[in-house]
Structure formats: C-alpha cells, structure tokens
Amino acid sequence: MSFSINSNTSSLQSNLYATQNNLNQDKSLTALSSGSKLTQAANDAASLAISEKLLALVSGSGQAIQNSNESIGLIQTADGALEGIQDNTQRIRVLTLQASNGTLNDGDKAIIQKEIDALSESSNDIATSTRFNGINLLDGTGGSSNDGTFVTQSGADVGDTHSVSIPDARSLVGTVDVTTQAGRDAALTTLDDGLKAINSARADLGAAQNSLLSSVRNTTVSQINAASAASQLADVDFALESANFSKQNILAQTGVFAQAQANSRNSNLAGLLG
C-alpha cells in the first residue's frame, strides 16, 4: 500500500495569498502617497484615457486664457495710442477753425501752422513707435501676417481664435495747411475723415477686447468643469483608500502568519517521516 502527502500545498497557497496581499498593499500605499488612483493604466485604463484628455483640455485652456489676456493688453496699448492721435487731431481741427477766422493776419496763421505741424509730427511718432513686445501696432506691419491683423488663439482647440485689424494710423490724417483758404477748407474735410477712421478703429478695438473678455470667462468655466471631472476620475478618496490600506495591511500580516504556520507543519511532518 502506498500513499502521498502534498506537504507543500498549504505553504504554496499561503505564499500566493501573501504575495497578492503585498501587491494590493503597495497599490493602496501608492494611491495614498500620490493622491491619484490612476498611477498606472492597469488600475483603470478607460478612466486614465478620459482623465488625460480632460487634463489636456485644462492645460490648453490655461494657455488660451493667458493668450487672451496678453492680446487684451495689446489692444489696450493700441487703443491708448489711438486716443493720443485722436486728441491731437481734434486739437488740429480746432486750430484750423481758428486760422479760418478773418481777424488773424498771416503771422498769426504761421504760428498756428507751427503748432499744427508739431501735433502732426507727434501723431506720426505715436503711430511709428507704439509697440507691444517689440511688435509695431499702428504702422500696418504688425500682426500674424504682417498686415495689421492680429489673431489670438483664445481656445484650446483648432479654430478657437479671435482676430482684430489695426489700421495704419500714419495715413489716417493727411497733411494740413492753414496758411491758405483752400488749404483750410480741404483740411476740415481731411480731419473729419481722419476722426471718423480713428473712431471706427477704436470701436473695433473695443469690440475685440469685449469679445476676448467674454472668451476668457467662458474658457475659465470650461477649464474649471474639466478639472473637476478629471479630479473625480483620478483623485483618491482618502477615507475609503485608508480603510482599504488597513484591510490589506491586516491581510498581509495574516498571510505572513499563515505561511509561517504552514512552513512549521511541513517541518514537523518532515521530522516525523525522517
């Protein structure tokens, strides 16, 4: 009569359970220390893919908001410069009307002409020297295509853009000569046309600024919602995970004890058979 004893069965099972418990314990500890339950794709591949997509939207939205705010600064710089040109132009118009009065002699008109020339030069300097981050704003050479049109990537996706065109301010107001009647008559028409063009340009800038501000608000809301959704997918529930870690810790300790007991029984059995 023969018989067999599977003396290693209990020990192998105990070792298997202990190994699995240790892995679960390490996984729980990693989640608690990192604050994320998606530290590796094996934890939840689908949630990880969705979470990463949402995080890309969050970071992209952040850059889009920064882009919009920088463009708002550019627009405000251009608008402030145009306001200076507008003030000069309005003053030139007043001087032109003054020079049109028959009570002034040629010397008076010459003095007025000097002030007009100085104001015109000031406006030209503003148009040629106004820059934002080294980019000319009012001479018609700035922008994404060097044609005065500035495009802002105001969203996280392709096509989420805003654009604004800033005209060449050097050409908005022509030459003004008040030393002759013909020059004064022509100057008023030229100045009125120039003021209309400046007002139109400033209105476009104001509309573009408001549009970008609205875009910033909308993008911020989208960013917050995406961040919240990503957080729900990836962030650890510390109370739940702490309880799970305690459970795995107890199981690991129990497994070590069970393995020790199995090894002890095998040793006793080997002693009896020896």
Features:
f41 fragment of flagellin, N-terminal domain, 274 residues, 5 helices, mainly alpha
Describe it for me?
This protein is mainly alpha-helical and 274 residues long. The chain folds into two domains: 64-233, f41 fragment of flagellin, N-terminal domain (Up-down Bundle), CATH 1.20.1330; 236-274. It is built from five helices and four strands. The model is unreliable at 1-5 (pLDDT under 50).
Give me the CATH architecture of the largest domain, please: Up-down Bundle
Portion of residues in beta strands equals 5-15%
Which structural class do you get from the secondary structure elements?
mainly alpha
Helix percent band: over 70%
**3D shape:** rod-shaped
| Biggest sheet overview | 2 strands, antiparallel
The fold-level CATH name of the largest domain is f41 fragment of flagellin, N-terminal domain
